[in-house]
Amino acid sequence: MNIFDRMMSLDRRWVFLLLAVVCVITFVWGFSVPITISDEVEAIYNRFDALQEGDMIYMSVDYDPNALAELHPSTYAIAEMCFRKKVKVIFGTLSNLGQGMVHQAITDITDSVKQDATYNGVFYEGREIQNGIDFVFLGYKPYPAMVIQAMGLDFRVPFPTDYYGTPIDSIPIMQGVKNFDQCELVLDLAAGNVAEMWITYGHGNYGVPLCLAVTGVMGADLYPYLGSGQIFGLAAGLLGAAQIEKLADNPGRAMDGMRIQLFAHIVIILFIVMGNIGFLATRKRHKL
Amino acid sequence: MKRQFPLALVFIFGFAMIIQYFIPHQHSEWVNAFFMDWMMIIGIFALALGIWSLTRVSWDKVKHKRENWQYAIVTLAGLFLMIFFGFDYFRHFSTAVGSDNYMYVHFYQYIVIPIQATMFSLLAFFIASAAYRAFRARSLLATLLLIAALVIMLRFNPLLGPLQPVMEKFSVWLLNVPNLAAKRAIVIGVGLGMVATALKVILGIERAYLGKD
């Protein structure tokens, strides 16, 4: 077996080992990498940035813990941005394991908002975020397509009470709020086909202004909906989350994780190049 | 009658929901909301069926000591412990109080979240290995796939220096032109297929859902 054969048939454990080493080194070595902003993520940020105090949005956290690393940073950055700007948020989840994560995220963000902070040169005084005044968490109901359609009619159809068991009608933030008509926009943070259900039933049936934050593998599938105007923004994967954090001037785990992803990608590319050099050289030799 | 009754129900409700969609009136909305409630209630029965099925299959595995039966015990223990803690030791059945139960929260945060996150993280290693083996320039189409994958991975890579904006522009073109055209063709094809299948079910041409009896 010559060197080219070896390049083609490297034991996969070497791939695992090298990738693990690179991930650990880049995790421990705390340097930052420049983040380039894409138009589709900037469109999301601009829309949120234009929201005024008292406006209301709907945030659907439709992912399981397996997509937490990619999507949680976007949830944190955007929810904090809304709370700082005194924008009211209706949280919901269409993922059966999403409830605990939303509850945890709300707890963390409300703690964070208690501190004073300056983002993009604007000073925000710390304040107490109150359940029922600044936000409401509707909880989880199964069968996403039906729940989206039902919420389009009235939030009270699928969610007569919120996550904590309080009747919707007795929650101050929900007074005069019937359905998506009272929301400036809907942000769906999704892993799986729930994102397409929001496009079909949320935007298609009720015309909600919709933007998506999705896992990296889903990004390419959803680009057609950007072109058609069915969604106004798209943040895909950890990169999308890092772009949101950078635009919001609130660096978090996504920007931190970008250096690990960047070097992991380089390792994968080097392995692909190596395999192809071996493949092409071997093919040439066989032809001769 | 056993076959005709379900067929009639599907026909009536199928057409009612289609017609309702085109009537923008409050009565029509009420009908829609009423059926939404029904659909969710019926759907929840599927959840109960899933729990029953999982319990039966796992119990059967343990009882007959089939291969890897020990894992079935863990499955059953996980299932029933989460239900037990979720109902707050069976003290709260109809409220979300159970979700605040100490054990329920700890099981979720320190077992479910790390397990799922770890399983998904392992994918990175398998994808790296699969990419190394699969992305070979064997033919023109394979080479195009290889180039597209490299461009997408490198599009925001700052280490490329002056090449990075070029790569970014190329990746935007790839996503917005060839990818968009192919995806739209698939979406339109799937959409038309769904309409055709739905019509076949509503009109009783497609009856596979009724079973064999």
Describe the structure.
The complex is a heterodimer of chains A (288) and B (213). Chain A is built from ten helices and eight strands. Chain A is of the alpha/beta class and 288 residues long. The two termini of chain A are 17 Å apart. Among the domains of chain B are: 1-71; 87-134. In chain B, 76% of the residues lie in helices and 0% in strands. Chain B is extended. The chains are: A alpha/beta (288), B mainly alpha (213). Chains A and B meet through helix 2, helix 5, helix 6, helix 8 and helix 10 of A and helix 2, helix 4, helix 5, helix 6 and helix 7 of B.
Task: Describe, in short, the structure shown.
The complex is a heterodimer of chains A (288) and B (213). With 288 residues, chain A is an alpha/beta fold.
Count interface residues per chain for the largest interface: A-B, 59 and 57 residues
Runs of chain A in which pLDDT lies below 50 for 5 or more consecutive residues are: none
Order of helices and strands of chain A: HHHEHEHEEEHEHEHEHH
Multimerization state: heterodimer
Helix content of chain A: 40-55%
Task: Outline the secondary-structure elements.
The complex is a heterodimer of chains A (288) and B (213).
Chain A: H1 3-8, H2 12-28, H3 39-49, E1 56-62, H4 68-84, E2 88-93, H5 98-113, E3 117-119, E4 122-124, E5 135-140, H6 144-153, E6 185-190, H7 194-206, E7 210-214, H8 216-227, E8 233-236, H9 237-247, H10 253-287
Parallel strand pairs in A: 1-2, 1-6, 2-5, 6-7, 7-8
Antiparallel strand pairs in A: 3-4
Helix pairs in contact in A: 2-10, 3-9, 4-5, 4-9, 6-7, 8-9, 9-10
Chain B: H1 4-21, H2 26-63, H3 69-86, H4 102-134, H5 140-154, H6 163-176, H7 178-202
